[in-house]
Amino acid sequence: MRIAYVTETWFPSVNGVVTRLAATVSELAHRGHEVLVVAPHVSGTGDWKEPPGATVRHVPSVGLPFIYGGQPWGLPLPRVVGLLDRFAPDLIHAVCPTVLGWAGVLQARFRGLPLVCSYHTHVARYAHYYHLGFAERPVWALIRRAHRHAHVNLAASEESRDELQAHGVRDVGVWRGGVDLGLFHPGHASDEMRTRLTAGHPERRLCIYVGRLAAEKGIDRLLPLAAPGGDRHLALVGDGPAMTGLRQAFTGMQATFPGRLAGRELAAAYASSDVFVFPSTTDTLGLVLLEAMASGLPVVAARSPSSRSLLDRAPAGGLFEPDDSAGLVATVRRWLGAPLDRRHLAEEARRTVFTWGRATSELLTEYERAIALAGRRAAA
User: Fold this and answer.
1) Is 186 helix (H, G, I), strand (E, B) or coil?
2) Positive or negative, the Cα torsion across 23, 24, 26, 31?
3) Over the stretch 123-153, which tens digit does the pLDDT of each residue have?
4) Checking DSSP bridges between strand 232-237 and strand 91-95, what pairing results, if any?
5) Of 38, 62, 74, 357, which has the highest C-beta tally within 10 A?
6) What's the CA dihedral at 204, 207, 211, 212 to 10 degrees?
7) How many domains does the chain contain in total?
8) Whether the Cβ atoms of residue 56 and residue 50 lie closer than 8 Å to each other
9) Are residues 317 and 272 in the same domain?
10) Are residues 243 and 110 both part of a single domain?
């Protein structure tokens, strides 16, 4: 099958959408499918590699500092039409169609191609975090209209599916997230990584957050975990527009900012920590929670529909109310004081989390359904 992805985000950006898409592209290429990725051009470098077997084409982009932290948005220019025509896909998948994704939506309609749209990010809700609350309704109108053109609609989780359906999109399926179980495992623990994450204090109990450093993630909720003089240390792994402000907020605290980590380094960071903390209430899934579970970590997360659903499957973890700092500290303390067999926790998690292979098999079934629906509509 020849599959064209038109996505609002790609490397060198690091987020759950990129992680999911890169893993899926790799799995598809391994199975012999031909894949094109059309993505915004993003300046910058990082420790990343394009997934093997995929053709990646970048288009001009524009980013404004007051919109989603300056994230570049690809422009739906005529160039996208040429890229898609030359590739001649059997199916187009618009990932988070908001701006660039619309080029894929319109091309699929114009060429009569099967179209899949997937919803991953609360873009409309995030407008409030960047003083653009007035834009929420127009953004939802764009998202809703794009999805109504699709033959098959997917969401990142059951909770995001419910939200999309509540905004008028019907018959939404779930594109489940997966974990690289060969990479994320407690056996990758490293004294060197623990020393690095604790700024030379490996004796401290290490709490780790992994993800984008941005206003909508609520990272300031984790301040009590880095109180000076205590036995805990907080490592905030990642990068993003809130980095400078967070460094200032955590000045004098027992916290480190190691930046982005990927691959074996990221696996070692999880495995070398004692508890994973997740303060966000806006994520549609939170793949990092699954990675932490596979690494044998107890997970402490702010209460939200998606985190509650994930922690129902976690062998060790708990929820805290987003505005209850005492509850956060108490929940973390409870898990830090519990006798835990990390390898046993990892084994329990592996019974419930999806691999990327299994998730991609389900996705291919949805692609076949989209192709069949498009054929029936064309024949009607």
Assistant:
1) helix
2) positive
3) 766 666 665 677 789 989 999 999 999 999 9
4) unpaired
5) 38
6) -70
7) 2
8) yes
9) yes
10) no
Helix (H) / strand (E) element for 59: namely: strand 54-59
Round to whole Å and give the CA distance between 58 and 37: 8
pTM, to two decimals: 0.92
DSSP state letter for 129: G
Instruction: Kindly report, residue by residue over 216-229, the tens digit of the pLDDT.
Output: 999 999 999 999 99
Residues 296 and 368 in one domain: no
Look at residue 257 and give its three-state secondary structure: strand
Question: Can you read off the two tokens belonging to residue 101?
Answer: 């994704």
What does each C-alpha distance from 20 to 1, 103, 133, 158, 205 come to in angstroms? 19, 21, 28, 16, 30
Residues 213 and 113 both lie in one domain: no
163 and 268 together in one domain: no
Question: Residues 267, 164: one domain?
Answer: no
Longest dimension (CA), the chain: 71
Around Cβ 208, how many Cβ atoms within 10 Å?
25
Range of the domain at 338: 186-350
Q: What angle do CA 350, 354, 357 make, to 5 degrees?
A: 120
Same domain, 158 and 134: yes
Cα gap 216→294, rounded to integer Å: 25
Contact status, residue 183 vs residue 147, Cβ threshold 8 Å: no
Query: What CATH number is attached to the domain comprising 11?
Result: 3.40.50.2000
Name which of 221, 207, 220 is nearest 254 in CA terms: 207
Beta bridge partners of 59: 40
Do 270 and 222 have their domain in common?
yes
